[in-house]
Design goal:
The protein is α/β, with parallel strands linked by helices. 31% of the residues lie in helices and 18% in strands. Bound molecules: iron/sulfur cluster.
Length: 771
């Protein structure tokens, strides 16, 4: 048994249970004949509920990408928008407290408009009912509640909870941010989070491991953001699907901990399960700077005595990509997809070729992706250089700090003043413009004119920031965004070009300089933004949900499977990219996250109809046109179950479980697509839907809306209890009566078949608890 220094209960809740993990890992090592493991495998497999039951092969290659693992995550984090449905689902299980430490973060529901004090006040008024609900759940079940203004979930997790070797789940797709501190942190839907919250083993198909070898060292204008914008260009939004990205190589030790977090954060954009880094000196320094020296002591023992926090010598990756940091150029990714990657030296020319707007309309820095001390000091350095030369920003400039701690530190060190005195607007410590909560006054939401913005955010799907489908969001580093606000011109390359000053002289930026960590340590900030420390569950607290509320609605369990083959009509065929933003739009809809019926009016409103080219249009069997959700509500009422047919990577983007809950609520039974994004496919299974992929992609063209689509052999498949996937026949009957059979694939495990039978994963867990 491994020996670690003793710690208090409070610190223990923030320290991975290294001794237990090492015990588990030794069992895995025995089964796999001591084969060298990657770091990702070590962390993941050490969190297995029962290695002897889970690891059924001694060969690692027979595990990766093939076996389902039953895991015990160490903690759960939830953001306000997704926490509502997670907690509504948790409540239906009847448990008195959560099985693992958990936290709630109020960040997504806060609007960005005029600056912190006004925006926060109005957002708290607008969302009071929801914040009160979340706070009362926190009290009742012993979950730490971080209120509005405290910061963005991933920044707070990095500052407080992430640790080398930790395994956690978060109800947000950028949860992998915590991998910057050597954790395995996975973005999931609420139903998955409920597994961890109820102590039910959480199931994951063992990911393959993609090694990214970093060599050289960043310098000048290049930043950690460029590692991931470059990688997104190489791998595309689907390239990381089914993989954990593990960074290695001598370049790793040259990065800051927060830089590694930026890289892991945006690993979500390549579809990766998560990303992680081996334990470094930078991790230790960050843990110490954020008041967690004792966690670092434990991590030191775990690594120095047991070699737990780095890959084993000779560990094999399924794929390796190499990036030389010394040669890395700043990249600009977009518009509308995070993998359209252009080096800054080619951006001007490409923008002309592609007819992108030449005038940039705003610059935004910060967010969970890029609001570290390093990012902000480098950005502020550029602002100072420009200010000294007498330059003023030519376009609006917004700064979103990731947490109260980072904001207070920036304020103490004069950076807030640097930004605000030079035209910057410092928004609340919240998501704001990153998630459609940008109440933008200069350009209307419905403007048909394209406009472009430069942001240091991570995601750039249409309408994501200001609700305007014609806003082109170009993702880049905070340094690039900051330099661009002084030119406002797509042709400007701050590395090589100058800006003409009023006195006729030319001004050229020097490469930005910053500091990884504040020399005077982090500032705590205002106490009102910190959670209560006593997490004893208070069972007498009433969690109020008014039946009249349009924001919150208690859940009715979905009906169990009736034991018959499924017979559905094809409601529509979706064309092209269909992200969770298309399936369950955010922005104004975020308001209804806790009210399943109301939010379902947004279902697939962003989807394009393959047969007509229209967005948000579907046709009833008699040819009457409806919006997509209207037709779904009608068919639900008519008791006509339906299927939606779609193309590749269906459901990419956020871990938004409403994208699965709403279709299920509206009577959807099958999603038949060319391929799924991982989280969304799991979410569909958890809600009792049947997600299928075409065995032969060309069959997509043979199906039309209105066709009858039936399963053939589902009863058999369920009786066999699933086998981690398999084939299923699908019979298509045309309105003429002609019919044919195609083949589809499913990836359901034994447990997922049980979810399907019970009507949802929550029903299944509830049944187990009652049994
Ligand atoms: Fe918030 Fe944007 Fe980060 Fe999501 S990606 S947590 S919306 S700041």
């Amino acid at each position: 048994h491994a020996q670690f220094p003793s710690i208090t209960k409070e610190v223990a809740s923030r320290t991975p249970p290294y001794a237990k993990l090492l015990d588990n890992l030794s069992k895995v090592k025995k089964i796999t004949n001591n084969s060298p493991l990657t770091l990702a495998e070590k962390i993941l497999y050490s969190h297995l509920c029962d290695p002897e039951e889970s690891i059924i092969s001694s060969k690692l290659e027979d595990i990766r990408g093939l076996q389902y693992l039953k895991l015990n995550p160490d903690r759960v984090a939830m953001q306000d928008a997704s926490a509502q449905m997670t907690l509504l689902q948790f409540m239906t299980t009847g448990l008195a407290q959560t099985a693992v430490p958990a936290s709630i973060h109020c960040d997504h529901l806060i609007v960005g408009k005029e600056g912190e004090s006004k925006d926060l006040k109005s957002s708290i008024t607008t969302n009071k009912e929801v914040f009160d609900f979340l706070q009362s759940c926190g009290k009742k079940y012993g979950i730490q509640f971080w209120g509005p203004g405290s910061g963005i979930i991933h920044q707070i997790v990095l500052e407080n909870f992430s640790a080398p070797g930790l395994m956690m789940l978060g109800t947000d797709s950028h949860t992998p941010n915590a991998g910057g501190l050597g954790a395995i942190a996975i973005g999931v839907g609420g139903a998955d989070a409920v597994d961890a919250l109820t102590g039910t083993p959480w199931e994951l198909k063992a990911p393959k491991i993609l090694g990214v070898k970093l060599t050289g060292q960043l310098s000048g204008w290049s930043s950690p953001k460029d590692v991931i914008t470059k990688l997104a260009g190489i791998l595309t939004v689907r390239g990381g699907t089914g993989y954990i990205v593990e960074y290695f190589g001598e370049g790793v030790s040259t990065l800051s901990c927060t830089g590694m977090a930026t890289i892991c954060n945006m690993g979500a954009e390549i579809g990766a399960t998560t990303s992680t880094f081996p334990y470094q000196e930078a991790h230790k320094l960050y843990l110490q700077a954020t008041g967690r020296g004792s966690v670092a002591e434990h991590a030191d023992v775990a690594q120095n005595q047991y070699g737990f926090l780095k890959p084993d010598e000779g560990a094999q990756y399924d794929k390796v990509i190499e990036i030389n940091l010394s040669e890395l150029e700043p990249h600009v990714n977009g518009p509308f997809t995070p993998d359209l990657s252009t080096p800054i030296s080619e951006f001007g020319q490409r923008s002309l070729q592609e007819d992108w707007p030449q005038k940039i309309s705003a610059g935004l820095i910060g967010s969970c992706t890029n609001s570290s001390y390093q990012d902000m000091t480098r950005a502020a350095d550029l602002v100072t250089q420009a200010s000294k030369a007498g330059l003023k920003p030519r376009i609006p400039f917004f700064v979103t700090p990731g947490s109260e701690q980072i904001r207070a530190t920036l304020e103490r060190d004069g950076l807030v003043k640097t930004f605000t005195e030079n035209g910057g607007i410092v928004l609340a410590n919240a998501c704001g413009p990153c998630i459609g909560q940008w109440d933008r006054e200069d350009i209307s939401k419905s403007s048909s004119q394209t406009n472009s913005i430069f942001t240091s955010f991570n995601r750039n799907f249409r309408a994501r920031n200001d609700g305007n489908r014609n806003t082109m969001n170009f993702l880049t580093s905070p340094e690039m965004v900051t330099a661009m606000i002084y030119s406002g011109d797509a042709q400007f390359n701050p590395i090589t070009d100058s800006i003409k000053l009023e006195n006729g002289k030319e001004f050229k930026f020097n490469p930005p300089k910053g500091q990884d960590l504040p020399s005077r340590g982090f500032e705590h900030g205002r106490n009102k933004f910190y959670p209560e420390q006593d997490l004893t569950p208070q069972k007498d607290v009433q969690v109020e949900v008014s039946p009249e509320s349009d924001r919150l609605q208690l859940l009715e369990p979905f009906k169990p499977w009736n034991g018959q083959e499924l017979k559905t009509n094809v409601l529509m065929k979706v064309e092209g990219k269909c992200t969770t933003d298309h399936i369950s739009a955010a922005g104004a809809w975020l308001k209804y996250k806790g009210h399943l019926e109301n939010i379902s009016y947004n279902t697939l409103i962003g989807a394009q109809n393959k047969e007509t080219g229209e967005v948000n249009k579907a046709y009833d069997l008699d040819g009457t046109a409806f919006t997509i959700p209207e037709l779904m509500f009608k068919w639900k009422q008519d008791q006509r179950p339906w299927t939606v047919v779609a193309e590749h990577n269906y459901g990419e983007g956020s871990a938004r479980e409403h994208a699965a809950l709403s279709p299920r609520f509206l009577g959807g039974q099958i999603l038949l697509v060319k391929s799924f994004a991982r989280i969304h496919e799991t979410n569909l299974k958890k809600q009792g839907m049947l997600p299928l992929t075409f065995a032969n992609e060309a069959d997509y063209d043979k199906i039309a809306s209105g066709d009858v689509l039936e399963t053939v052999g589902l009863i058999d498949l369920v009786a066999k209890g699933g086998n981690n996937g398999g084939e299923l026949d699908i019979k298509i009957t045309k309105p003429s009566g002609d019919s044919f059979v195609i083949k589809a694939n499913h990836t359901m495990s034994k447990d997922q078949i049980e979810f399907f039978k019970a009507g949802s994963a929550i029903n299944y867990i509830g049944n187990l608890r009652r049994a």
